[in-house]
Hints:
The chain is mainly alpha-helical.
Amino acid sequence: PQLWNILRGDLSFVGPRPPLRQYTEAHPELYARVLKSRPGVTGLASVTYHKHEAALLARCRSTAETDAVYSRLCVPAKARLDLIYQRHQNMCFDFDIVFQTIGNIFRRG
């Protein structure tokens, strides 16, 4: 489905990951700017923040705590990284993010 969305032009390879509506509504000031970019399959926030996010969420003891930590800490941090990407977007940066994503996939697997 993501490849089809890329071919249709709704999604790019690199860009901010599409957020859930609940997070855009909870953080409208951040997402008003982030959502100006076309969403992507991978992005700076995905490759930069995934380990820290996993460590934070692993300490949570309930679904409610996980959601609260994600919304309070992870969402704003990832949105700020998306804004950094937005300001510095170029083809070299995109290639770097794609290669980091591929590396992360093979390191996890």
